[in-house]
UniProtKB/TrEMBL annotation:
SUPFAM superfamilies: PLP-dependent transferases. GO terms for cellular component: cytoplasm. This is Glutamate/tyrosine decarboxylase-like PLP-dependent enzyme. InterPro entries: PyrdxlP-dep_de-COase (IPR002129), PyrdxlP-dep_Trfase (IPR015424), PyrdxlP-dep_Trfase_major (IPR015421). It comes from the Bacteria. It holds the Pfam family Pyridoxal_deC. The modification N6-(pyridoxal phosphate)lysine is found at residue 337. One of its GO terms (biological process) is carboxylic acid metabolic process. It comes from [Anoxybacillus] calidus.
Amino acid sequence: MNYMDEIQKLFPSQDGNKETRDLLVSKMNQLITEFDKLKNPAKLTLGEMPEYTEDYYNQIISTSNVPEQGITLDETIEEILKLAKGHRYPNSNYLANATPLPNIASILGNLLMVLLNGNNVWDVEGAAAANAEVRITSMLSKIVGYDPNQSAGYTTWGGQGAVFNSLRLAIARQFPEANRTGIPNNLYCFCSELSHYSLYKSVEATGIGTDHLIRIKANRDHSMNLQDLQQKMEEVIQNGGIPVYVLATMGTTDTFGIDHIREIKNITTSLEEKYNLPPIYIHADTAMGGMYTFFNDYDFETNPLQLEEDVCQVLKGYQSLFKDVHLADSMVFDFHKLGQTPYITSLFLIKDKMNLQYVDLDPTETPYVGNRGYGSYHTSYTLECSRMGSAIPIYASLLAFGIKGYQQLLANYIRVNLEFRKKLMQAFPNVAVTNNVSPVTTFRFYPEKVTWEEEVNGKATYEEIEAVNKYNDNFAELIGLHRDMIYFGSTKKQRLVEARNTNTRVPIYAHKFYTVSPYTTVQDVERYIDFLKHFMDIHSKELVLI
Ligand SMILES: *Cc1c(COP(=O)(O)O)cnc(C)c1O
């Protein structure tokens, strides 16, 4: 008996025969059919939720062993589908974060990626993804206003990977010898106090040190305060520090605040002139907001998509900020957020490919790839060695949606949020909406009178703010118990405010309504409000009982 016969049956064919293909397709059909049976649009979760007892993971640890004898594909399907039970599904009941429902084109792109199993480190190993990567880099460069002949891009480990990669470029550009000798000990980075923790981690990992990460106050609209930026950068320079990097967040994770990149660029340029400094690197953290560059060329006069006036107002505001994103040295497209593709599909986009020379490896360091006589695309400047071909699902998605398709999707996030804000304010006398109109609405309930204006203007005491925080935290706990029905997000640091009676800045707790499902439409809003009302009634009664 040939043992390899049995093993070969676990693989796709070599010759494209129908029998093996039918097997693969029928098993996929079986998986998707069983998966679909778990779906219920009235619930957030797939099938029954397992009981998350104290020893849930300990039980898994004690019962997990590699089977002596492999099980059948049918049994394998049955086993892996158990993992899906109780999993949240990003349907219209999911309102917590920018978590996508991967679109069909991206799923097919992913499938092709897996079937080819290219390694995107080198085009000889991964010709398809290399080709797709060059395509999407050019496509998206044209959208954001980078010169496609001068720009470069590669898919990497998320928006966070883009921040890390950009910081590495910033250091190497200014201190090319630092790759060999280590970094100077007086480098400083700047970001909004509301920026994502990606930069915090990156200053840790590059050895700059988190003490050298300077956080800039945020304005009422959650954008970085430019005066504070200017002042803090000057202070650093006057004390002998070197400003090496500014992170401009365009779409803060919780509140969608957008930093004014043109003014940031003006500040860095004027400081460079005044103190005779080399160029300070600016990375636009567009992980959340980047997709809205798809409106950069939208004509609001003719309004070809016939978007409503209030939706246009919001998008016009975005356009005025995002059309300047090309001023950044680099940026990112996190398609697995508002672009509706599977994790991880992030393109790190660099304005000037010459910057990559500072981090590229010498060919003698890369004996495995690229230095043979064939293949002209090898990415020895990435931090990854092997790289998945996630440019393929992004490419598929861009083709299937087109600019207009993405515009419709992105406009609907705004439309639904406008409706939600209106209905929320009508339904609750004790609520404040605490951010600008965007794909996310943050809001905060009050036990009695709404005191948001006092809080945000430094007129509330620490104790008063904390009491409202607690009230909202309790409510988040209460509705969180019913997250198998509808799942709202929450944040414990929507922003920081001054308290009247202390010198510390106090974080604000808020609830989040993040609408990223294509199935979330204005018709759903009533349902969300009813859910909140139902539990607010219970919540306020419980408080009375206490
Ligand atoms: C989500 C997010 C990140 C991190 O992106 P990942 O793709 O999760 O790594 C970075 N910055 C901002 C502003 C984000 O919203």
